[in-house]
Amino acid sequence: MAPAVDFSLYAILDVAVLAEFRLSVEEAAEGCVAGGARVLQLRDKMADGQRLFDEAARLVAITRSLGALAIVNDRADVALATGADGVHVGRGDLPVAAARRALPSAGIVVGTARSLEEALAAQAEGAAYVGVGSVFASRTKEAPRMTPATAGEIARALRVPVVAIGGIDAAGAANLSGLGLAGVAVCRALFEDRDGVPAAARRIRDAFLGVTAR
User: Which of 116, 118, 138, 146 is disulfide-compatible with 166, CB 3.0–4.6 A?
Assistant: First the structure.
């Protein structure tokens, strides 16, 4: 049986956002893992195949050395070619079932859902876990909203882990705590904190887990 994955803080390394804060993929990854993230997703919507391959290969090297997992957004071929741990597929990408066939049996396929019906469909097609949202207004990506309560209802209805996404910071993570979710997916709030990435990651993860502030 595969070991359980700690999804409590799922860090999204959006290359466009990292550029705003003058952070490399490596710097962002190291900071997130230092703060407790164990799953990191690379997102670069503007990259061609070569650039995304290079970025993903660098992320995989870092996550392997630090004991974390690397997920590639959109591109199952890049995930496979770089030895990443999995791929996140959303609307307009490969169907979950197709991505599942493209990766090794141990590969993680992440589905996306905006409703219980979509979440159940992703689970049925072989998603290892499902991202649901947007639970709050996001400054990184426009998406229809769902309430935290709805995200929790979806989490309790599925057999696979469910991670909430969309505009989540420490306060939002605290509001999502105890709803049955496996974790929170966070992008911008990890990198804009004046205390640095590790401190921001730790604060958000602790808020989700209900850990008293250190």
Answer: 138
Name the band, by pLDDT with cuts 50, 70 and 90, for residue 91.
confident
Q: Give the DSSP H/E element, type plus range, for residue 209.
A: helix 197-209
pLDDT at 213: 56
Amino acid at 47: A
Rounded Cα–Cα distance for residues 194 and 100 (Å): 39
64: nearest Cα among 47, 51, 83 = 83
- Which residue is associated with the tokens 């499902």? 130
Three-class DSSP labels, 165-208: ECCCCHHHHHHHCCCCCCEEEECHHHHCCCCCHHHHHHHHHHHH
Greatest alpha-carbon span in the chain:
44
Amino acid at 116: L
- Give per-residue pLDDT as tens, 131-155: 999 999 877 666 678 999 999 999 9
What are the helix and strand counts (H, E) for the chain? 10, 8
Cβ pair 42, 24 in contact under 8 A:
no
